[in-house]
């Protein structure tokens, strides 16, 4: 295995920033493929289409065109190396570290003699992302925009006309409208009172019906409680009677029924049929 595969992350980043005049702080920032393209261009100047490299790519689908440029340069220089693009564009540390170590190994073998390589000229003045800029990196400006910024501000030829002060208007209220509004309010108020009185009357009727029902339930409660009490007295007397063993079931049932229906029978006798 080549010695570059044992190079640490710190040494790789120091070599990368020194040779390409960048300010890369993490190995994962190489995932866009732009750094790999310039390393190969540094090994074989002019064989990489650097004008097609997108340095400010931020997403996966923007990284892929950079790797297409890298593949084309590999084919142009007869480099047999499998590049796992799907793993590199995920910006994982280990995948990009191993590929960067391989690129360093290839540079040691093929490109270290190119001491006159100018990374700024190779990038053709393209803007770099914030993480790749250095303090000495030239700032690319649009000449048209720069000239426009140097022009003094021109005074407007047409002066604005002074505006007249706007006076606040006071709304006038007609006496007739006030009276009509008062009449309408009184009518709506009286209608609401009528509705409330109707609701109160209906609720009073409901209360009377509930009272009547409650009285009937109380009378039924007292009636059945009295019957239960009479049955209890009859059973107690039957237990004290010495002849309770001679009472048959039919006799016991007849006596209980006579207690339960006593008042009903008496009422029937008091109200003779015509």
TrEMBL record:
Keywords noted in UniProt: Cell cycle, Cell division, Coiled coil, Cytoplasm, Cytoskeleton, Microtubule, Mitosis
Record protein name field? EB1 C-terminal domain-containing protein
| Alphabetical list of SUPFAM superfamilies matching this protein | Calponin-homology domain, CH-domain, EB1 dimerisation domain-like
Q: What GO MF annotations does this protein's record show?
A: microtubule binding
Q: What is its subcellular localisation?
A: Cytoplasm, Cytoskeleton
The record's section on InterPro entries has: CH_dom_sf, EB1_C, EB1_C_sf, MAPRE
- Kindly list the biological process annotations in GO that this record carries: cell division
Q: Which Gene3D superfamilies match?
A: 1.20.5.1430, Calponin-like domain
* Coiled-coil positions: 193-220
GO CC terms, sorted? microtubule
The EB1 C-terminal domain is annotated at: 192-269
Q: Where is this region: Disordered?
A: 139-192
Q: Which species? A: Noctiluca scintillans (Sea sparkle)
- Family statement drawn from the similarity comment of this UniProt entry: Belongs to the MAPRE family.
Q: Where is the composition biased (Basic and acidic residues)?
A: 145-158, 181-192
């Amino acid at each position: 295995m080549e010695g570059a595969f044992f190079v640490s992350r710190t040494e790789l980043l120091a070599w990368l920033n020194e040779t390409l005049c960048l300010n890369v702080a993490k190995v994962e920032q190489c995932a866009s493929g732009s750094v790999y393209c310039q390393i190969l261009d540094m090994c074989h100047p002019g064989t990489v289409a650097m004008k097609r490299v997108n340095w400010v790519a931020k997403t996966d689908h923007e990284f892929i065109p950079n790797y297409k440029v890298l593949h084309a340069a590999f084919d142009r220089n007869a480099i047999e190396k499998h590049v796992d693009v799907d793993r590199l564009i995920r910006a994982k540390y280990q995948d990009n570290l191993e590929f960067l170590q391989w690129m360093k190994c290839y540079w040691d073998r093929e490109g270290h003699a190119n001491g006159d390589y100018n990374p700024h000229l190779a990038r053709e003045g393209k803007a770099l992302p914030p993480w790749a800029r250095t303090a000495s990196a030239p700032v690319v400006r649009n000449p048209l925009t720069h000239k426009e910024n140097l022009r003094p501000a021109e005074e407007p030829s047409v002066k604005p006309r002074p505006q007249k002060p706007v006076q606040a208007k006071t709304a006038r209220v007609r006496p007739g409208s006030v009276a009509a509004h008062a009449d309408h309010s009184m009518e709506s108020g009286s209608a609401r009172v009528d509705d409330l009185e109707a609701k109160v009357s209906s609720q009073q009727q409901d209360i009377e019906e509930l009272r009547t029902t409650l009285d009937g339930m109380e009378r039924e409660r007292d009636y059945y409680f009295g019957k239960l009490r009479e049955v209890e007295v009859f059973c107690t007397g039957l237990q004290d009677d010495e002849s309770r063993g001679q009472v048959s079931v039919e006799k016991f049932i007849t006596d209980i029924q006579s207690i339960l229906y006593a008042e009903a029978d008496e009422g029937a006798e008091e109200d003779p049929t015509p």
